[in-house]
Design brief:
This protein is mainly α and 91 residues long. It is 96% helix and 0% strand.
């Protein structure tokens, strides 16, 4: 009977040690996942900032293209006017 009690105590001790081992393992995995999650969040935030910068650049370029198109149209109209004047001149 004493041997059974001794065996039970040893088994309980082993179960407890194994349980702590698994808990430590799980804690390590959870910490790894949290670290990776934080890294991914930072990467996402960095990419969002970069994307915002690229959008701003695109908007500036679109505005510049619009101004160039307007200037081009003005030049075309001016050339047409000059050509029209040249046609009316008798040489």
């Amino acid at each position: 009977m004493d041997e059974e009690i001794l065996l039970e105590k040893q088994n309980e001790k082993m179960d407890t040690e194994e349980g702590w081992g698994w808990l430590s393992y799980l804690e390590g995995k959870i910490n790894d996942l949290l670290t990776k999650f934080q890294e991914l969040k930072k990467e996402r935030d960095d990419l969002t900032i970069e994307l915002d910068g690229e959008r701003e650049k695109r908007m500036k370029l679109e505005k510049k293209m619009e101004l160039i198109s307007q200037d081009k149209e003005k030049v075309r109209m001016r050339i047409d006017q000059l050509l029209h004047h040249l046609k009316n001149i008798d040489i």
